[in-house]
Design goal:
Elements lengths: L1 E8 L4 H15 L3 E8 L13 E4 L9 H11 L3 E5 L1 H14 L4 E6 L14 H12 L5 E4 L2 H10 L6 E2 L9 H5 L6 H4 L5 E5 L8 H12 L5 E5 L5 H10 L6 E5 L5 H4 L4 E4 L8 H8 L3 E5 L5 H4 L7 E3 L4 H13 L4 H7 L5 H11 L3
Parallel strand pairs: 1-2, 1-4, 2-3, 4-5, 5-6, 6-7, 8-9, 8-11, 9-10, 11-12, 12-13
Helix pairs in contact: 2-3, 3-4, 8-13
Length: 361
């Protein structure tokens, strides 16, 4: 049985990484897998996935992928199609309708629909909303990566049939990645507790609040913050660190291909976001035994941490409350064996059983 995965743009994080993990899982289960990528940026190499056929359409915009996807489906006749992100999902569903494909199709939404669709007439997001309403009946499974997102989709689409299937976070490579050597001095010779964050350095991630929270903590306790990631706010973040005299407490170490080895040696992981889909980084931190602290933002953190059972929730836009949450996590870390229970729904077997059920494989 041929299973084809579609992703719009390749990167080694976020949605493409989640799709790759799922594709590898289906291959391990004995399926013939194609992985179709819309575009690979010039600064990245096409990934090698063992026993998986990778196809680069070289189309930098989703709308330009339509013709290529139609040709692919018509020629290869996949039995199952798994796509992610609403813009691409709509194109994949239309392609299946045009080719009269008999494939079972799962399309997955990864961000809040309030950021994807709009009721403002004649805007791109308004057109997308009605286009998706036209094609979504072709999907065998409309998937969201968090239960909170399902509630949001019910507000956008009447009689929404979305269901929740989490991303695979813990896979066969996780243990090996956690044990890899780290060359970061703050983690090798720990003289102070180490806090860690990871993600794109962008406004929605709330990193300025995190820096101010570290300033608050440093008044009474020496702590270090390692920030993993790159993005448009790097210069602004560096300026704030310098302004608050926190250069000896906070270090930006850029994008890391394997963040798990850092989480495994840190004390507390902090998610300071204002909005999420389903934050895989929280699950990864839990998997590594690193106590999470997260803003109670929509959507995902409260769901992942199960109302605070597996970590500490703090309000958004409140550096002092975040500082208090981090202090609590440092003083009362969640035991690793407890955190492991919290990631059971994100394991390969749990996720595969869900897809097997909804697609009747």
């Amino acid at each position: 049985m041929k299973v084809t995965f579609f992703t719009a743009r390749y990167s080694i994080s976020g949605v493409p990484l989640a799709q790759i993990r799922l594709a590898k899982l289906f291959r391990e289960k004995g399926y013939d897998v194609d992985f179709v990528i819309g575009y690979v940026p010039d600064n990245l190499k096409l990934p090698y996935l063992e026993r998986i056929n990778i196809i680069n359409l070289n189309k930098p915009r989703v709308v330009l992928m339509l013709g290529s996807i139609i040709k692919y489906i018509y020629k290869n006749k996949p039995d199952v199609i798994i796509s992610a992100e609403d813009h691409l999902n709509s194109i994949v569903l239309l392609s299946a309708m045009i080719t009269r494909s008999k494939a079972k199709i799962s399309v997955s939404s990864r961000v809040t629909p309030f950021d994807t669709y709009s009721n403002k007439i004649f805007t791109k997001r308004w057109f997308l909303k009605y286009f998706m309403q036209f094609v979504q009946h072709r999907a065998d499974a409309l998937v969201c990566v968090s239960k909170d997102m399902i509630k949001q989709y019910k507000k956008i689409f009447k009689n929404s049939k979305h269901i929740c299937i989490y991303n695979v976070v813990k896979d066969g490579d996780s243990e090996k990645k956690m044990k890899e050597k780290v060359n970061e001095p703050w983690l090798i010779n720990k003289s102070s507790p180490v806090i860690i964050s990871a993600g794109r350095l962008a406004p929605e991630k709330g990193y300025l609040d995190l820096i101010l929270a570290v300033k608050e903590i440093s008044k009474t306790k020496d702590v270090k913050l390692l920030m993993l990631g790159e993005g448009p706010m790097r210069e602004e973040i560096e300026q704030l660190i310098k302004k608050e005299n926190l250069s000896s407490n906070i270090k930006l170490i850029g994008f890391q291909e394997n963040p798990l080895k850092y989480y495994a040696k840190a004390d507390v992981f902090v998610l300071s976001s204002y909005v999420e889909g389903l934050p895989n980084v929280l699950v990864e931190a839990m998997m590594c035994g690193c106590t999470p602290v997260s803003t109670d933002c929509p959507t995902g953190p409260r769901e992942v941490l199960q109302e605070g059972k597996y970590g500490y929730l703090v309000p958004m836009n409140n550096p002092k409350a975040m500082a208090e949450g981090i202090k609590k996590a440092l003083d009362n870390p969640i035991p690793p064996e407890t955190l492991k229970k919290g990631i059971e729904a994100f394991t390969e077997e749990a996720v595969f059983s869900k897809y097997k059920e909804v697609l009747k494989l």
